[in-house]
Amino acid sequence: MPRRTRADMTEDTRARLIAVARLAFGTRGYARTSMDEFTAEAGLTRGALYHHFGDKQGLLAAVVEQIDAEMDARLQAISADAQEPWQGFRDRCRGYLAMAREAEYQRVVLQDARAVLGGAMPGAQLQCVASLRAIVDQLIVAGVVAPLDAQAVARLIHGSLTEASFWIAEGDDGDARLVQALAALELMLQGLRAPSRDEPAPTG
């Protein structure tokens, strides 16, 4: 058996702590968990947690980063699986909102991370905006979306989806809010469509 390197052991320690914390945050919430609980379940010391994450907030940030990366991969797959680009864009936006009703994502990212860390991770936000911009760029080139600034559109869409997700997650009537948000999303997205040749160009 090959000898494990220090890098392997470091990654293993981080992965164990993140896995334990992710389960605890997702099932009980940030406020009802403790660092002693995490280290005991992972078979590690408090020193290991401090060394790799600084504190409990740092561990939450690492969990959020992992969940965000998985969410982005799922959204990318939604876009890739669509039969045509506009449908992929629309389904991606709808999928983003639907995730606000998933228990782990709702509790860890939309509730605890917002309360403890002040919102989504900056890196995840930039990645999501960049992904949206690439899709919008393609749609503009294809003549599907009106010739607007792709960065502006991506920022607007991302901001709207993020705020709607927070709104869906914070209410007891989350299912009803999701339906309402999806209806509003459809209207907003249709406003981005380029007019067909038979339609007059928008003015003003």
Describe the secondary-structure layout.
Blueprint: H1 6-28, H2 35-42, H3 46-53, H4 56-81, H5 85-98, H6 103-117, H7 122-141, H8 150-170, H9 174-190
Helix pairs in contact: 1-2, 1-3, 1-4, 1-6, 3-4, 4-5, 4-6, 4-7, 5-8, 5-9, 6-8, 7-8, 8-9
Keywords: DNA-binding
Organism: Pseudomonas fontis
Protein name: TetR/AcrR family transcriptional regulator
How does this structure look, described?
This protein is an all-alpha fold and 204 residues long. It has one domain: Tetracycline Repressor, domain 2, CATH 1.10.357. Helices cover 75% and strands 0% of the residues. The chain contains nine helices and no strands. It starts with 5 loop residues before the first helix and ends in a 14-residue tail after the last helix.
Features:
204 residues; TetR/AcrR family transcriptional regulator; mainly alpha; HTH-type_TetR-like_transc_reg; single chain; Homeodomain-like_sf; disordered C terminus
Q: Catalogue the unreliable spans.
A: 198-204
Shape estimate: elongated
From the 3D coordinates, which CATH architecture would you assign? Orthogonal Bundle
| Strand residue content | under 5%
Q: Give the tally of structural domains.
A: 1
Number of helices: 9
Number of strands: 0
The arrangement of helices and strands along the chain is HHHHHHHHH
Under CATH, the topology is which? Tetracycline Repressor, domain 2
Report the CATH C-level class: Mainly Alpha
Instruction: Specify Rg, calculated over alpha carbons.
Output: 20 Å
